[in-house]
Every structure is written in C-alpha cells, then in structure tokens.
Design goal:
single chain; 311 residues; alpha+beta; Tetrahydropterin Synthase, Chain A; 3-stranded antiparallel sheet; elongated
Length: 311
Amino acid sequence: MTQLVVAMVVVAVAGFALYRTIRIVPQAQAYIVERLGRYHRTLTPGLNIVVPFVDMVKTTVDLREQVVSFPPQPVITSDNLVVSIDTVIYFQVTDAKAATYEIANFLTGVEQLTVTTLRNVVGGMDLERALTSREEINSELRGVLDEATGKWGIRVNRVELKAIDPPASIQDSMEKQMRADRDKRASILSAEGQKQSAILTAEGERQAAVLKARGEAEAAVLRAQADAEAQAMRAKGQADAIAMVFRAIHEGNPDQNLLAYQYLQTLPEIAKGDANKVWIVPSEMGKALEGLGGLFARPQETRPQDGPPAR
C-alpha cells in the first residue's frame, strides 16, 4: 500500500514537472522567462522547453500592433487659448525584454509622453495654425514618440489627432466668420455669374445683329442681281420683239397710211395707264391724221370713175 502511494506521488510529481517543462507559446506573443530571479530568455511562438522549478515565466507580451485612444487633453496655444485635443496612438512592441525591464508600464509612459510632446508642439502655434496643421502635428508627435520609446522596445507607427476642440465662444466666432466668408464668396460668384451672363448675352446679340445685317445685305444683293437679270431679260425680249417687228415691217414694205393707222391704234393703249392723267399729242399726229384722211377720202373721189356718168 505504501509503495502504491509513493508510486502515485512520483507519477504526480513527474507529470507536474513535465507540465512545467513544456511551454507552448501562441503566435504573436512572447514569454519572458526568468531563472532564479534573473532574465534568462524570451520564448518565441511554438513549443519551448524550460527547466521546471528553476525557470519561471514572468510576463506575457503581445507583439501585435496596438491602438490606444487617450482622453482629451487641454493644451494652451501661443495666443493663450485652451483647446482640447484627442489623440490616438498606433504602436507595436518590437523587443519584449526592453518593454518588460526598461519601463514599469510602457502604456502609461506612452500616454504621458504624448501629452507633454503635444503641449510642446501645439504651444508654439496659434489657434488657426493648430486647426489647419494636423499633418504637421502628427508628424512631429510621431518623430518624438518613436525616438523616446525606442529604448523601451516600442515602435510608434502612427499618431492621429481625433479632434481639436476650441472653446465654445471661439467656435461661435469662427462659425460666424466662416458664414460671413461663405456669404461673401457666394455674392462674388453671383456677381461674376451675372457679369458673365451679361457679356455672353451682349456677345450673342452682337453676333445675331451681324448675322442679320449680313443676311439682309446678301438678300439685297441677290434681289438686285435678280432684278438686273430680269430687266436684262425684259430688255432683251423687248429688243428681240422690236427687231422682229422692225424686220416684219421692212419685209412687208408698209406705206405711210398703214403706219398712221397703227399709230392711231396705239394711242388708246397709251391712255390706259393710271399715271397718264395728261398726255400730249405729238406734232406728227396732224400729219398722221391727214394721211389717214387722205386714205379714206381717196376711195370716195375715185368711186364715180368706176361706173358710168350720171345723167
């Protein structure tokens, strides 16, 4: 019975020793091992073997990138205005041993270092520059923090300012100023738009007037050309008609009496015009009438000669 108890104790001690000997470290973590109170080594992810009852795991360090948001910090600018600034730090532990032994609490150290650095950086700026220089503030903070935390085994990857809140009275004044600036820009843009619209309207009217005048000029030229061509054609027609009549008259060999008769037939046509209120009989009219009278009187004189004399 005693031997069985002893065997069980031995097995339990061996099992416990085996449990303390084998250490499985998860990915992205590191175990700090101390031997007899002094740093011995850092266990990397995977299976590790330590000496039981001699080696002891002091702490576990997370090697992943961490994001820490610090509460708003009051900062005084160079123009004596208090602003509240929220910051976010992205950092990563690169040396587990330094992060464990170089500083008691590296997270508190990063926070306090951020506050002091932020006050130094923003304290040299006025409010307007602080509100518009976030990238500059982020860059300076990251450089100072990365240099100061390097000996702690920490690398600061990014520093972001979540918000910069000036006092309520300053915010109200800034909103009024921004509203006034927007109204001013809107008025300027409206005036520029009206000016441009007036210019375009005048330019359009000028071009329309030019095109209209050009069209009227071209139309007048075309009408003049058409009238000239029509007159030329009428003149040519009249010339052809006169030539034809003249040729027909000469070919027919008319006598003076026929010409006088045609002249008398033409007189009513001359008198038909509305504008012919007064017209003058030419001097040749008497001779024409004499010839025409002779034409009608001659047959009457010669008519008795045709028959026998009266008794």
